[in-house]
Structure formats: C-alpha cells, structure tokens
Records
---
Amino acid sequence: MQNNTVVNMDDIQTTSTTAPLKNVALCNRLLETAINRPSHLPGMVCFYGPPGWGKSFAAAYTANKHRAYYIECKSTWTRKAILMAILKEMGVKPATAIYEMTDQVSEQLATSGRPLIVDEMDHIVDKRAVEIIRDIYEGSNAAILMIGEESIETKLRKWERFHSRMLLWQPAQPADINDAKHLARLYCKDVKIADDLLQFIQQQSNGVVRRICVNLNLVEQTAINKGLDTINKQSLGDAQLYTGSAPARRVG
Amino acid sequence: MSNKPVDLTSAGDKNDRQAVWEVIRALGKNGTKFTLKDIGKKMQWAAQDNRLFTYLRCLEKGGYLEVVKKPYQENIYTLLIDKGIDAPRLKYDGTKVTQGIGREQMWRTMRILKTFSAKDLSVSASSDDHTVKLAEAKDYCHHLRKAGYLKGGPKEGYVFLVSRYTGPRPPKIQRTKSVFDPNLGKVVWPEAHHE
C-alpha cells in the first residue's frame, strides 16, 4: 500500500501548483476516489496525520480543485454551530430549526455536486456533533473528506454507525527530498539550492512542510545577501536553520 | 426526515442574476413550466426587462433551461439542470465566466492556511486550470489588509482574521481601488463618510 502511493515526480516538473507534493497528491486522490465511487459504496473518506505535515496545503489544493465547501471545526462547536458554519460557507440563509438546516445543507450538497471538506474533525468527534456529519451524508450522498490528527481513527471507531460509512483512510506522509525539491522550485525562483543543502534542510525540518518553506526562504535570503546565484551547504556557513526546537541553554 | 421541500435562499445581498436564479429555481421546481411573465411578477420587474431576458438567454445556451417557442405566444421555460443556490455565472454564449476564479481560490486558500505570505498564497491558490501569479496575490493581500480582513504585512506575512469571514464570495477590488464585499453588498474600504 505504502509503495504505490509515492508520486512519480518526473512527469509534472513544470507545474506551478502544489500538486506534485506527496501529501497534496494523496489527499486529492483520496477525494477523487470518493467522488467517482460506484454508487453502492460509502462516500466518506478521512485524511489524517500529525500537525505540520502539510495537511492544510493538501486541503487548500483539493478544495480549490473541486470547489469544495470547507469548514474547520472548533472544539466548542455544537451541532447547530457546525450547520451554521456550513451554511455560511455555502452562502445560504440558515433556517431556524436544526432539522431544517440539515435539510438545507444536504439539498445544496446534492444539487451542486460539490464535495464537503471537514478540517480538524477530531475536535467534534467526542460529541454527538459527529452524527450531524453522518446525517448530512445520508441526506446528500455527497463525497465528504474529513481531515484530522492521528488519533481520529480510534476516536471514530466508537461511533460504529459512522465508522461503517467510511470508504478509505489515508495517513499523511512526512515530506521527503522530492517534496523539498518541488518546494524549492516553487519558493526559490531566483536562487539555485544545491542538493546537499536541500537534503540538509529536509532533515533539519523533520519532514514538516511549513518548516521547509521557512528554511528555504531563509537560505534564499542568505544567498541574496551574500550575492550568490547558487548556494550549497558550505556557502551557507554557520547560519542557523529553523528546526522548531527551543534554543539550547547557554551557560556563562 | 421531513418531506417538506427545503427552502434555499442566499444570505446577504443579492445581485440581479442571483435574484433571478432563485426565482427560477422556485418556479421550476419538479419540472414545472414557467414564462417570463411569471418571473417578472415575482421579481417585481417588467417581463421585458433586459437583464432578465439576457440571463435567461445565457441559461438557455448553457443548457440549464429548455425553451419552447411558439408564434404569437409566450416562451415556455423548463429548468433542466439545478446546480443549487449559486446562480450559474455564464457568458452570453453559455460558456462559463472564468473571471474571478483566481480571487475565489485565493479567498478560500486564505481561510484554510490562516497564516501565509503572498508567495504561499500564490502557490497554494493555484490549481491546474488557473495559476495565481505572485503579483496578483501580493495585490489582493495588500487590499484585503487595508480593508481589515488580514493582519500583518508583506514582510512579516499575513494572518487571516477568521472573525472577519463574511461568506463564500470573494471581496472585489474595484477600479477605484476600493474594496467591495459582495457578501455584505457594500464597499468596505474606504468606509463611506456620508450617512
């Protein structure tokens, strides 16, 4: 399973989108599977992984590509709050009762054919709020992509009726050297970064996409300040990369 | 689940086409046939209104409406495709309007990323069909910051203020460089001084 999820990097070198990034491709493929599923299969899918692994990047690309309705759950949200948020995202004037609002959401999803993306799903998983998502799915049969942190699978297992409507589970992957290369292509248009430095950045960033972006920016700035067209690990000198860890204690 | 049909009305201000589309959806539900006059009555517009006629023509060309024309009689319309509450954005020949796609993608991406630089925005808001240029992203961020949707600046990066999210339709930058929010239906920057 793990091996055939890796994207072939060579065909899509010239694109200026985030599509070739591994997690973006995985997430997009996941939603497409749900959209194009045979009608007897369930239509809810879940993309999960630790914070910082580019789930938001993936969500942004996927949402734009399919014009999905996107909501991000908050831990305080009740069932009504979820429905209000979705209706606001749809631009529909909310009805007063919860059951009417559920119908409104379902009707709009079903007629427009647009998918729904529920980010930070783990915030509402503990509550009865999760049943609302199921109701919406039952009412619309629309593709629904849920995004959450690693624990979401075990948390959702508690809700058996919900769990049985899931089509696929897809774990996110840490950013690898190919991802770092593509990010460098997108972010550093003026400066060429040597492979050894890219490798170093990827290791130091621990596979976290946002840190790679910050570090690429930092390296590009350093290169520009030093007047270099190409920068490698040696010419970076002793500039500190951003690793996300707090500075070490200094004594004396 | 109730069998009572649900009523979908768009929130906030409606433009002409949105208003017409909602009337058409209501009239044409379950394949009911209707005429220009029916729409005109509901809208309190004259049935000869050009805005009405033009949009119906776009919908017909785009395959959303079927028209039966008979000499000396009113055209009879049937709604073929109902794509939900959003009025289809069509040109006169029935093809989709592509203007504003970049803005829509940026507006959506801002909300998803929450903290971003103009570069992040141009990269993440690009899709295969529509690339968002860096200059476009910079310009849009600049104006939205002035209008108070974003915090921060070009150097330190921007933060999207989630509480300022007004709805799905992206704010427009007008030719006079003022910012118009179609969800509220008003110019949000510069604020009007007259009451």
---
Amino acid sequence: MLLRATTIMKILRLGQSLCSSGSIGGAFSKYSCLFDGIDAHVRIEDSALLRPESALTVSFWVRPSSWTQVPFGVEQFMIGCVKSGGWGVYLTKQGGNSYLRFRIRVSDIDPACSGSAQYLTAEVGYVQTEALPEWVNVVARYENGRASLRYNTLSTGTVDGIGCPSATIVYHPSPVPVFIGADSASPTSASNFFEGNIDEVAIFNTSLTVDDYTSIYNDGSPGDISAIVGLQGWWRMGDPNGQASFPTLIDNSVNENDGTMTDMIAADIETVVP
Amino acid sequence: MTNVAGINFAEVVENSQDTLRLSIDGTKTVLKFVGETPSFLVGLQQYNHSEILAIMQTAEWTNIE
C-alpha cells in the first residue's frame, strides 16, 4: 500500500550539533549512540527473554540534550515497549516541571486488587530531575507490585509506583520489540523519540539489589556487568568497534539479540561517554 | 511529491517506508540526508536540526499527553 504524503519535509543535517562537552572514556566504554529526537532509534526484535513477567530491571546511561527543555506534555522515551504493553523510561514535562518516569503495565489478578491490568508509574521528582548532571545512570526496577527508579544509585525525591504484590508484568500478545531512543507506536514502528546520547543499556529478568546497581554505577564509570545475575540483554551502543559497528549494535549478553540502528547513520556512534 | 513511492531510500537516512515518521494525520513525513540534496527532494522545503525539532514537537506531529 502506498502511503500518501502531501508534503515531504527534509532536514539538512548540520554536523554534530548535539555533540558538545562529552569526553572520551579511558576505560570500559568508548562509545555511545546519539539520538536526534526526530526518528532515530534502535530496534531490538521481540524475544521471550526480554519479556520477563515477575521481575525486571532496566539499566542505562543517558545524556539528554537537556533535562529541562522537554516541551510540555511530550514524552521522550529513552527505552520502551509501553505501547506493546510492557514498560518504558521517559522524560516528560508537566505543569512547567520536568520528570524522569518509569511506566510499566501489570495485571492485578488478585481479587483483592483491581483484578485487571493497569499501569504503574515511578518517578524522579522535578527538583531532582532538573538538577541531574550531564550523564546519569538510570535503573528502573519492578517486582512484587512495586516499580521504582534510581538515578546514580540515589532514591532521594523518587516516588515508587505501587500495585498489588502479586501483579505480574503484562505484554500484548503481538510481537513486542524494544526500542532504544523511542517507544513502540506499534509492533513495527517507533514513536516518542528521544534527543540525546544513550550508553550501556541492559535488561535483567530480576529486580537488582542495591549492591548490584551500585556495582553498575561504579562511581560514575561504566564497567563490565556480565557477571550480574539475570542479564538478558546488554547493548554497549557502539563498543567495541565504534562506527564500524553500524548498523548493528551487538548484544553482549549470551542471548545474542542484537539491535539495529534505524533511521540513523554511522556517525551517530560517538565518542561521547559517561 | 504526493506519495512515498518517489522516495529513493538509498539517498536518505531513513531505512524504509516502514520506519518513516508520519504526522499525526498521516499526510506528511520527514526525511534526513547528509551532504548534497538528493535530486528527488530538490525544490522541497528544508529545515536544519533545531528547526525540524521544533516542528516535530507540535501537535501536528506529536501526541501531547
């Protein structure tokens, strides 16, 4: 089917306008991916391994173009599959303030609870969100009816999303790709595009302990997380081969569920790292 | 240009018709390119990154929650 378009808009890319003061890491991570906020995203194909139902942790490092300049009402997803059921982490603005949020769809099947699916939302308050440093390690967790967010291991100013303790994570029956730098508009397309850099994305089928995510944070320097129990996917966003990796972002877990850079170019793999 | 059949995906950043970002009403799309303007886009409106970002954040292109 041909899609009618009355106007085609075009962009003249003007170099690395989003790239500024990041530094080249001397250690583990040497590359991150730049997302342009227009249509760039990384597509990770549906896999049962990435659809844990009882517990989940998503960890990544993020450097938005700004923590405060998200337009009112717009949700910029750093990673997500919310519109496929699932979950997502995003930056949004409400009432003039910016919030970092984690939304997850769960089923309150316990008759003492709602008995249906609902969304839980955890957030980092606007005071903390708007004061976040350039690079932040974000850890979103779900287990036993509680969704939580941590930033650089901290919980100050965060609010958990609370549901029924027996609630499990719900996904739609259709394929559920995970998008980095966007949410899923459908099983085949992306939406809610993020503007900024993302690095070292990992998905676990467990709710990580404080010791685990403190290890991931590693005093602000990403490191090897392969020994952490429950690792289901780990995309290093260009490491170790840099732009030669394009368009495939290798899954460094044992599951080999590689991601595909979509509507992106090799130069979107940058030496801008935490 | 009146439909996407005329897009030469070898000359733009977008991967395919399936990955095109559409306006909310589905009548418009946005294409990125590097370097010289692809011949099939000559004469159409162009924007730089900051300009198109501002457009993408309007209700025409984004669901405002």
